[in-house]
Design goal:
Length: 473
């Protein structure tokens, strides 16, 4: 198979950029779903102390409230994307949005830790199906070029805005009752579901003509990704031997998956997709970008709350400026992409992300917020320039019958990158703050900033190869 083409040509603005009212309606619903996924993750993070107090959870059990969702979300993403291709994107989106609604509400009624953990795992699985299904509805409903680019940039901006706004909403709701943090997404899911039925049309050729299911491949890759995510997630809480054993088992299953896919008549992931250099670069850069972002957010939250004594709500408001992406992604980024192409915009975004992390290095015990603000606003701009175009490159040129699995592959990269970044920054903090003094903590947080800085550098280098390739043409 030849290399998948990428929409990096400079295009002049035209009326083709304008979406029809019906297209906007469908996009509005799909953006609502990705916004829901964003606030669902962010709101729960700031409610963890209240959950621990009410349900009497240990630190290990509390960690599983987050890890269970991550395992379900990351582990089933690739299978969920393929299910959308095989059984209908609209159908999978609606069914699993309904499942998400139910389990979110059930989680809000939990009276024991295991109930909440189980609900979070199923919610993660539901998100793992409806997220790539929603993305593939966009990529198959809008033609490649300006229209699809605009739709994807609006979509990605909404995702980032949901995450930023979720931090604030979670802080507000948790003050009243942590259960509202689970009931609120359930209510929003119900509204989206009601609107989605009439606004998302059923495409006549939405399902693959070949609906054979690669069961063995699905089981193998799901187990492999879950083991890898679990090993990374629990690295700071388990022995080195356990972590190495878990990761090794995951790698062995990945190798077995490749063998299975080579022999399968209807593979879950057609390995030929991975011969596309732009697609591989986008996924690798996405993994590193997510690792850097979530690592930085973790460090910043610990610094503001544990060292400076800020409340959850104050911390959320301090980081709200990152949400500028929600405004910049659908307004500024399309113009830049149309003028300079995806590759250049991505590299600039990643360099800005690197700059934002470096700007946070001088933090001290009495640093005022105005000195932190440049980091937050530059990171918001970086997110606007990198996240959406990476999504465009990862899905451009992919056959319509494989758009779901392409989306699943990209979101798996994002999710695994986030887990890897959190584990790495946690390991650095644990290793450098043994003394427990204020100076030790500050030094540990500064040392941990090496993780997002290094990840951003690697992401920029990987993406820069796309510039060289294009220049050679």
């Amino acid at each position: 198979m030849g290399e998948i083409p990428v929409t990096d040509t400079v295009q002049s603005p035209s009326s083709s950029l304008r979406l029809t009212p019906r297209s906007w309606g469908m996009l509005f619903v799909l953006c609502g779903a990705i916004f829901l996924e964003g606030i669902n993750v962010a709101m729960l993070n700031v409610a963890l102390p209240a959950i621990r107090s009410d349900l009497g959870l240990s630190t290990g059990e509390l960690q599983w409230v987050i890890s269970a969702y991550v395992l379900g979300y990351g582990g089933f993403m690739l299978v969920g994307g393929r299910a959308a291709d095989l059984f209908g994107r609209r159908r999978m989106f609606l069914i699993w949005l309904g499942v998400f609604l139910v389990v979110s509400a059930l989680g809000g009624f939990a009276t024991e830790g295991w109930m909440l953990i189980a609900a979070r795992f199923v919610a993660g699985v539901a998100s793992a199906v409806m997220t790539p299904a929603g993305l593939s509805i966009i990529t198959t409903s809008f033609p490649e070029g300006p229209q699809r680019n605009q739709a994807l940039l609006v979509y990605s901006g909404t995702a980032a805005g949901g995450f930023s706004l979720g931090l604030v909403l979670g802080g507000l709701l948790a003050v009243v009752d942590w259960r509202l943090v689970l009931f609120a997404p359930a209510v929003l899911a119900l509204v989206i579901l009601v609107l989605a039925v009439p606004l998302i049309p059923a495409a006549p050729a939405e399902r693959s003509s070949d609906r054979r299911v690669d069961v063995l491949g699905a089981v193998t890759i799901t187990a492999a990704i879950m083991l890898l995510v679990l090993g990374v997630e629990r690295a700071a809480h388990a022995s080195a031997a356990w972590t190495v054993g878990t990761l090794a088992a995951g790698v062995v299953l990945i190798v077995l998956f490749v063998v299975i896919e080579r022999r399968s008549a209807a593979p879950l992931l057609r390995l030929g997709m991975l011969r596309s250099a732009p697609l591989v670069r986008a996924n690798l850069a996405g993994l590193l970008f997510a690792g850097a972002f979530f690592s930085f957010q973790f460090i910043a939250v610990l610094y503001l709350q544990e060292l400076r004594g800020w409340s959850s709500l104050e911390t959320s408001l301090a980081m709200l400026a990152i949400g500028a992406d929600a405004i910049l992604a659908p307004t500024l980024t399309p113009r830049l992409v149309n003028r300079f192409g995806n590759a250049k915009v991505i590299v600039v975004g990643l360099v800005l992300a690197l700059l934002s992390y470096v700007l946070f290095l001088p933090i001290g015990l009495d640093t005022v917020y105005l000195a932190m603000f440049p980091t937050m606003i530059v990171l918001g701009l970086a997110f606007a320039l990198a996240y959406g175009p990476l999504t465009i490159v990862a899905t451009d040129g992919v056959d319509e019958s494989e758009q779901g699995v392409a989306g699943g592959l990209l979101y798996t990269s994002f999710q695994f990158g986030a887990a890897l970044g959190l584990a790495a920054s946690t390991a650095v903090i644990v290793a450098t703050t043994a003394g427990g003094t204020t100076a030790d903590l500050l030094g540990g947080y500064r040392a941990a900033l090496a993780v997002p800085i290094a990840a951003a550098v690697l992401a920029a280098v990987v993406s820069a190869f796309g510039l060289r390739k294009r220049a050679a043409r």
